[in-house]
């Protein structure tokens, strides 16, 4: 099912990929970004996204966190910033609509991700926030969408995110996956917790 859905979606989205790729590249940087994430069994893979940040994003993040205690506290609590100065104009739109994650269809075709599952995390997140729950996370492929996406995304705490991942993995169900897929368009359109 993953391969069939991802393949069909890629064919439909091809014109969009070409247009968005050109818009993202307008600032001179690459169209895609592959961020190291932890996959099934602990394998590290490059999680693909349309680049939504400035090219020197890590340096800007480091400078912001060093100068702004409130931003540092927000980052440490959620690993996200509501007013992230690293995000480009096109990136803001792509993130708000979750369209920046469309290239992950390629990750699905490569067998690194599923359509539905826990969102892929960095090794540092797995080590810091998951504890014993990491064993649950590592048993499945991470997903393009999942229980966290349809439950408020960035409006939830990281502890809630981990609990949602454990709940999803503990009770695997095709029906639950279908429900998540059906809720995803509304979650994306409402933009709840998207930043």
Q: What's the arrangement of secondary structure elements?
A:
Elements: H1 2-25, E1 32-38, E2 44-50, H2 57-67, H3 69-78, H4 89-96, H5 104-109, E3 114-116, H6 123-130, H7 134-137, E4 143-145, H8 158-170, H9 174-190
Parallel strand pairs: 3-4
Antiparallel strand pairs: 1-2
Helix pairs in contact: 2-3
Characterise the protein shown here.
The chain is mainly alpha-helical and 195 residues long. 52% of the residues lie in helices and 10% in strands. It contains nine helices and four strands; from the N terminus they run αββααααβααβαα. It has helices at residues 2-25, 57-67, 69-78, 89-96, 104-109, 123-130, 134-137, 158-170, 174-190; strands spanning 32-38, 44-50, 114-116, 143-145. The strands form two sheets. It has a two-stranded antiparallel sheet with strand order 1-2. A two-stranded parallel ribbon has the order 3-4. Strand 1 (32-38) and strand 2 (44-50) form a beta hairpin. Helix 2 (57-67) crosses helix 3. The mean pLDDT is 90.
CA radius of gyration is 16 Å
Strand arrangement within the widest β-sheet reads 1-2
Specify the overall morphology. Answer: globular
Distance between the termini: 29 Å
What is the percentage of strand-forming residues?
5-15%
Oligomer: single chain
Main beta sheet: 2 strands, antiparallel
Find the count of extended strands (DSSP E, 2+ residues): 4
What is the overall number of helices? 9
Mean pLDDT across residues: 90
Order of helices and strands: HEEHHHHEHHEHH
* Uncertain residue segments: none
Summary keywords:
195 residues, mainly alpha, two-stranded parallel sheet, 52% helix
């Amino acid at each position: 099912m993953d391969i069939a859905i991802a393949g069909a979606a890629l064919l439909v989205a091809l014109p969009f990929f070409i247009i968005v790729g050109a818009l993202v590249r307008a600032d001179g940087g690459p169209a895609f970004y592959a961020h190291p994430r932890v996959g099934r069994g602990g394998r590290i893979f490059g999680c693909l996204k349309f680049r939504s940040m400035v090219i020197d994003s890590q340096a800007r993040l480091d400078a912001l966190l060093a100068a702004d205690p409130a931003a540092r506290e927000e980052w440490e609590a959620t690993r996200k910033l509501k007013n992230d100065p690293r995000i480009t104009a096109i990136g803001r739109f792509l993130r708000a609509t979750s369209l920046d994650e469309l290239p992950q269809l390629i990750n699905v075709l490569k067998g690194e991700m599923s359509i539905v599952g826990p969102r892929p995390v960095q090794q540092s997140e797995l080590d810091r926030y998951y504890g014993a729950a990491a064993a649950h996370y590592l048993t499945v492929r991470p997903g393009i969408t999942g229980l966290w996406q349809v439950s408020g995304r960035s409006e939830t705490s990281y502890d809630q995110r981990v609990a949602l991942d454990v709940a999803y993995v503990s009770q695997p169900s095709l029906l639950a996956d279908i429900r998540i897929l059906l809720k995803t368009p509304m979650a994306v359109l409402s933009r709840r917790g998207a930043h």
